[in-house]
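[DERIVE STRUCTURE TOKENS]
===
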Amino acid sequence: MNSTKAKELHDLLAPSLAAMGYELVQVRLMPSSRPTLQVLAEPLSGGSMGIDDCTLVSRHISAVLDVEDPIAGAYNLEVGSPGIDRPLVKAADYECFKGEEAKIETAELLAGRKRWRGLLEGITDGIVHIRVEDGAEHTIYAIPLNQIASAKLVLTDALIARDAQRRARGKEPLVVADAAKTPAATRPRLS
């Protein structure tokens, strides 16, 4: 999906979801003969995103999209949580998950490459820093946020253990399950 349509859908859905107590993490429209609109959200409280949450968010989004009709033709709607190995989509994500292992892909070559896997070192003035191990050596790369095509946390034993520790202390993780999706709902175009 082009970034203009993603931003349009995000801007349309985010305010009302926030009013309901949810943060809109990512919106993707995946093309096919019947496109799929995938929406990832999580409670603003930091709690886990359960099936009841997905159902509530899905019904709300369906109502908004029925009224606003921003997508031509029929499509499927999927609502889920971002999961433990969540996508990194905004600047705050790179600071929040500093020290975690991540994969980053850029749209264009930077420093002779498009793909990085390493430990997040944070973000400063719109520049994401990632420490990449090259054998016994490591290099910290500076990647402009606006050049990042996709980024996500890597599901590692360490990430799973930190998530379990947060739950054991009584603090819910930012997200718990990545498979909680409501059944796809076919959305007809209203004329």
Q: What stands out?
A: Residues 91-154 form a domain with the SH3 type barrels. fold (CATH 2.30.30.180).
